[in-house]
Amino acid sequence: MVFYKELINWYLQNNRDLPWRKTKNPYFIWLSEIMLQQTRVSQGLPYFLRFTEAFPTVFDLANAEEDTVLKLWQGLGYYSRARNLHYTAKYVANDLNGTFPSNYKDLLKLKGVGDYTASAIASICYNEPVAVVDGNVFRVLSRVFGVRTPINSTKGIKEFKELAQSLINEEQPGNYNQAIMDFGALHCKPQNPLCDACTFSSMCMAFSNNMVKDLPVKEKKLKVKKRYFNYLVIDTNDGRTVLEERKGKGIWQGLYQFPLIETKSSIDAHELVENSSFNEMNLNGAVIKRFNTKTIIHKLSHQHLYTQFWIVSIDSYKEANLKWEEVSEKPVPVLIEKFLNEFVVSSDQ
User: Fold this and answer.
1) How does DSSP assign 312-329, residue by residue?
2) What is the average per-residue pLDDT within 205-220?
3) What DSSP string runs through 206-223?
4) 225-348: which CATH topology?
5) Can you tell me the distance from the alpha carbon of 115 to that of 108, in angstroms, rounded to the nearest whole number?
6) How far apart are CA 319 and CA 286, in angstroms?
7) Which of 6, 33, 159, 326 is catalytic?
8) Which of 181, 185, 233, 256 is the most exposed place for a label (fewest CB within 10 A)?
9) 345 vs 335, which has greater pLDDT?
10) Are 169 and 175 in contact (CB under 8 A)?
11) Are the CB atoms for 44 and 181 separated by under 8 Å?
């Protein structure tokens, strides 16, 4: 049994009908691959359609304001991807005259483009035989070939790349790469893979040795950090509030949020008003009420944010220069977006 022949044969019968599969335009392939990093196709597809409608060419994306890009990206998470996307669009448009690099080595030089994305673009658009390796590929190869090296180790990343490269069909590298990605997503799934109807069941080491649930192997995750967020939702009598842009290289850089006081643990209203950061804001005469009855736990990859939203009602506040109807124009984290949806509903009742 030739692995790539079986894989491509399966793909030709089972491939997903996706818009970026109908083009060899590197702009669209690049856009889809950046969006699908750490994101399911079902979640990324609507964003791809919105982006291609708003920015049909790399020049349109390059000329957009960053706030516009981040607003369209809102909800996809990992916002550094959006900022890198915008940076690279400007580089390709302005420095490369709108033409993407045509090989794996040069594609790797683009900001936000790693081995996987460069391999996908090079193979699909330019027929270069470089194998993709992502979560789906790790899973398929570890199970079929019985590889127990941890996929998130330096040794494992190198070993799986070499294995993937040795298996690729050099005549149809694009089809092969898309085939193995689809096979992992649709057939060799993380939970409840379709082993009984699998074309590789006779050669699959994991299936033969009852190890399907044990592979792939992953090294122990980093310890999750707990953080305690207190958002101050300023609400003045003349319908204004405060949103601040997050600076620095932490989470949600470039997105907007209500004034934030981070504490070492969850606090009550009394502890909030006694906090030095709160006192520095000069919110004299304000009425403070907690909005959420239970602490909201917002989970990120290595952080859990224990969050409280405090409604701060006040006659006027000199820093409140944003009308409530303008808040929706700002790109915000999903955590803030969910609050705004609930806050608007409660205000209308």
Assistant:
1) EEES--TT--EEGGGGGG
2) 94
3) HHHTT-GGG-S--PPPPP
4) Nucleoside Triphosphate Pyrophosphohydrolase (3.90.79)
5) 7
6) 14
7) 33
8) 185
9) 335
10) yes
11) no
- Identify whether 262 is a catalytic site residue: no
- Nearest residue to 311 via CA among 328, 327, 293, 329: 293
First to last CA, the chain: 65
Q: Which two tokens stand for residue 334?
A: 């999903």
Its pTM stands at 0.82
Contact 199, 26 (CB under 8 A): no
Under the banding of pLDDT at 50, 70 and 90, the label for residue 349 is: very low
For residue 301, the model assigns a pLDDT of 83
By DSSP bridging, strand 240-241 and strand 287-290 are: unpaired
Q: How do residues 219-230 score in pLDDT, each as one tens digit?
A: 887 788 999 999
- Flag whether pLDDT at 74 surpasses 60: yes
> Which of 3.40.50.720, 3.40.50.300, 1.10.340.30, 1.10.443.10 would CATH assign to domain 3-214?
1.10.340.30
Digit-coded pLDDT (tens) for 130-181? 999 999 999 999 999 999 999 999 999 999 999 999 999 999 999 999 999 9
Return contacts of 110-117, CB within 8 angstroms, 24+ apart. Answer: 111/84, 111/87, 112/34, 112/80, 112/81, 112/84, 112/85, 112/87, 112/88, 113/30, 113/34, 113/88, 115/161, 116/33, 116/37, 117/30, 117/33, 117/34, 117/37
Check for a shared fold between 3-214 and 225-348: no
In this structure, the number of other CB atoms found within 10 A of the CB of residue 195 comes to 15
Any bridge partners for residue 262, and if so which? 229
- Please state the domain extents for the chain: 3-214, 225-348
Residue-level length of the chain: 349
Using CA atoms of 220, 222, 223, 229 in order, give the dihedral in degrees to the nearest 10: -140
Cis peptide before 56 (omega within 30 of 0): no
- The owner of tokens 């299936």 is 207
Q: Which amino acid is at 173?
A: P
